[in-house]
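Two folds, back to back.
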Amino acid sequence: MFGQEILSLVIWVPIVTAFLVLATGSDRNAPLARMLALAGAALGLIVAIPLATGFDTTTAAMQFVEKKSWIPAFNVHYHLGVDGISMPLILLNSFTTLLVVIAGWQVIQDKVAQYMAAFLIMSGLINGAFAALDGILFYVFFEGMLIPLYLIVGVWGGPNRVYAAFKFFLYTLLGSLLMLVSLIYLYYQAGGSFDIQTWHRTTLGMTAQVLIFLSFLLAFGVKVPMWPVHTWLPDAHVEAPTGGSVVLAAITLKVGAYGFLRFMLPIVPDAAHELAWLVITLSLVAITYIGLVALVQADMKKLIAYSSVAHMGFVTLGFFMFSPLGWEGGLVQMISHGFVSAALFLCIGVMYDRLHSRQIKDYGGLVNRMPVFAALFMLFAMANAGLPATSGFVGEFMVIMAASKVNFWFAFVAATSLITGAAYTLWMYKRVVFGPVASSQVEAMKDLNAREFLLLGVLAVAVLGMGLYPKPFTDVMHASVVELLAHVAHSKLP
């Protein structure tokens, strides 16, 4: 449909549109900025659709490949391609960007053009990170996405936005610098190549593998985020505007998890097997301990932020089970968490727009004033708790089953999160939605408008559709997962 440049379009259409949005200038032209941003986000999703319709699920080879020389002196290429691991994540990102633009339609009244442009630029850069097959190209996209997110939190965030943005930036930058050192080392070990697939075939000693593994673990672990380098996430979520929280939870965390599969596991497989106990331990701590931390939160955004850490713990746990069921479960959990976390943060945004509070104690009896909202909020709360027939159940169940085949106690500890997840999610829902109307301000709250209903309705369909019929997602992933697992099972020691 678009020739051989689909991935370039997926990356650059949102970015080019963002500069057109910025060109609208001041807030006097805010309506035009919004329309251009909506058109750019919609077009970004439209050009990504051929990735799904034209995808061959029977092969593990990279598809829609583009390769052009970029920096010849260092053999750096503009090299793009997707497989069954990265393609669904690009679609999730493009879909979420459209939702975020619509979500900020009426809420954002200050610096509208800059706000919309930041999300469009970030969307293009994240797509670039998912599609990059050159190490330096990946690093440029990986680092570049920090800038618009830093601005979104720092400019449109809450009272402590500067602190939260600075903390987020420092955490992620530190890990990324260590990763850069590893990328340069791999360049020399691969005979002067930054090609990621060449790195997969490069033989490395155990000491080098362990050091690279640890640098990648810090770089991608901060982004996931894994315990104990997760503390930037609740601060960033609390201070970020609703759209920032949606993209942060639904998309940027997934870039870290994606790095495990594209870099860490295939490049240093021996170290990954040797140090799997470390990642498994950190994942189980995140699943159990952070779930308990979520139980005591008074701020709804902070509660969902901590639940994200626990849910992403399932992803990293599944990856280090070294089985197709574990890897596919982790990937399904990534996509499901994108839908569910986006929906929950949008629900909190709906309430905040009306009452300007995220404190659980300020609510109560919402079902009496907002019955449609309460019904949709219930669905997403149940999905967050892992209710069967919702997307939240599928990935977690697959990971628990994969863990049970490795070690019963891994599965047992992970399964406890189904109890704590239900406890903190449903306890929050009960206090916010049920009971008598808490105050005159709650009494005055109105139900969803058409825009809000559209956003939450689309996500409800996604959550139920994936929960009831996850096969299309696993079919896309399966060939790539099996091929990559076979590679990871093969020793690369000299």
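---
second:
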Amino acid sequence: MIREYRTIQEIVSPLMVVRDVDGVTYDELAEIELPDGEVRRCKVLEVNGSTAVVQLFESAAGVNLAQSKVRFLGHPLELAVSGDMLGRVFNGMGKPIDGGPEILAEAHRDINGLPMNPAARDYPNEFIQTGISAIDGLNTLVRGQKLPIFSGSGLPHASLAAQIARQARVLGGDASNFAVVFAAIGITFEESEYFVQEFNRTGAINRSVIFSNLANDPAVERIATPRMALTAAEYLAFEKDMHVLVILTDITNYAEALREISAARREVPGRRGYPGYLYTDLATMYERAGRRIGRAGSITMIPILTMPEDDKTHPIPDLTGYITEGQIILSRDLHRSGIAPPIDVLPSLSRLKDKGIGVGKTREDHSGTMNQLFAAYSSGKDAKELMTILGESALTPTDLLFAKFAEEFEKRYVSQGYDDNRSIEETLTIGWELLSILPKAELKRIKSEFIDKYLPQNG
């Protein structure tokens, strides 16, 4: 039931206190009508007896306390969902901004949703191909997984995000039933235009839903944007039986907005000024991804965040790492060396990679080559450091081969540019070509029958 009040007590932008309310609930959507008829949206942040604290989605400028009125709409913020969302671009509040018509809603869904019940979860075990060797070959993405990308200021995570969104697909009979939900949180107008143009240029827009929240939009909208994206993903996955990849960039902007709102509410701050419930808040988003027992669809999530000062112990990457199943880390040193994308494979990890590879998913030799490439690259990095300290003459012939392997691995395997879409077969083939640099006796992590079958003859 819609209730209307003219009892605004005070406004401390972006918060507003309304007294003498009745039946108002937490997170309820509201509208404030100005004397000139302009309507602005807001939502309830707190209810204490007959007093409600409301947060504006827009500016508080021009609000007259005595003459403005507040309407409580009786429901939380909702998203109009439909299969027609595919191919469309929306702002952070779910309104179309691509010049197309409004969505003819098949349903209206509360954007807050619920984390998936652990008892209803199905185990992720199917391969998603991103076309990027450093991910597909070594830190495999599995359908239903949450695999974040940890980046830093100035690193090309936007290009990597666009590349994954363009190239990602599932193999086999479900290939046509794949969709991408892309949410850009707190980005500049130029970045927003870049993403939309990239999607249009490659035709990926036809299977995508894009939500774009700009840096000059209100902080509360930044809180709503990822939830809008996840609500759309849940509808496509569990109502339309699609396999949905959700890409959220940048989670750091989301957390900063959360801190801003927490400070406005005068809450006791936690680590580095972030609210004490940051972990819980992030978990309510991340845990909406996964596979449900008895449902054909799935939600796979790639949250992207920039680590302040490249600090992995900062609360945002630290808490994200606790909730998700691994992380892909971008390296500033590799970026300076011209490696694109600059994925640092040694500290990167996909905890579910073993579940999405092997016979019937990728190829029989995938697990062995993955382990051997990791081991050889690690040995090669050590050999290069030793060479820097002691000189090349201090290394054995085998150490020199490992050092050569490490250089070639970065140039040919990790570095592929942002337009090269490699199949998993191409990735595995490049891996074998690199392993042929090493003596056969050093390939201790691969079964001998796979060495005989796949190793190039010059090995």
